[in-house]
Amino acid sequence: MSVHKVPVGVSARHIHLTSEHIAVLFGNNYTLTSLKPLSQPGQFAAEETVTVIGPKGSFEKVRILGPARAASQLEISRTDAFALGVRPPVRESGHIEGTPGITVRGPAGQVELERGVIVAARHIHFHTKEAAEWGIEDKQLLRVKVEGERAVVFERVIARVSDQFALDMHIDTDEANAAGVSTGDTAVILTD
After folding, report:
1. Which helix (H) or strand (E) holds 22?
2. Where is the signal peptide (predicted)?
3. What backbone torsions phi and psi does residue 19 show, to the nearest 5 degrees?
4. Per DSSP, what are the bridge partners of residue 91?
5. Under 8 Å CB-to-CB from 155, ≥6 apart: which residues?
6. Where among 120, 141, 166 does a domain terminate?
7. Tens digit of each residue's pLDDT (9 = 90 or more) over 89-119
8. Of 127, 130, 134, whose CA–CA distance to 163 is shortest?
9. Cβ atoms within 10 A of the Cβ of 121, count?
10. Residue 127 is part of which domain span?
């Protein structure tokens, strides 16, 4: 039986913005500046940050991830949600129907998002070739174990397969803290 190891990426709170919202928050024709590349090809953490304001609290210096997206979306942990005073569902990225909104403030203006706040569902990005070799299909739900002092088996980890992806498991800070996991650690896909 082959062991399939996957690198883990811990995803802190961050926001994806549309070009229109970037223009409101930073000024017309503004272009995000890449701070560092992310694990997924073409994706980057921008130098720019914003403030997000909920009914109960706010967070400053929320990192923008680029490039611009078709819909603006704030990804937070359940702990963040309590602090902000919002009740976002656990969702796959991009699935924002029926989600709460939030106020986003930048140096040039403010945007009222009507929807788009989610707790991102844990998932693994697979390149199409890897997924085929490992017998994994897009949207398949996996069981994944992380070792260590606080070893945990994560259930219902969504497989996301594309020829645009690089192998990486994404969990949020609450999940990582519970399991004692850091970015760069590895997890094992369970096949039982």
Report:
1. helix 19-26
2. none
3. -60, -40
4. 120
5. 141, 143
6. 120
7. 999 999 999 999 999 999 999 999 999 999 9
8. 127
9. 18
10. 4-8+122-190
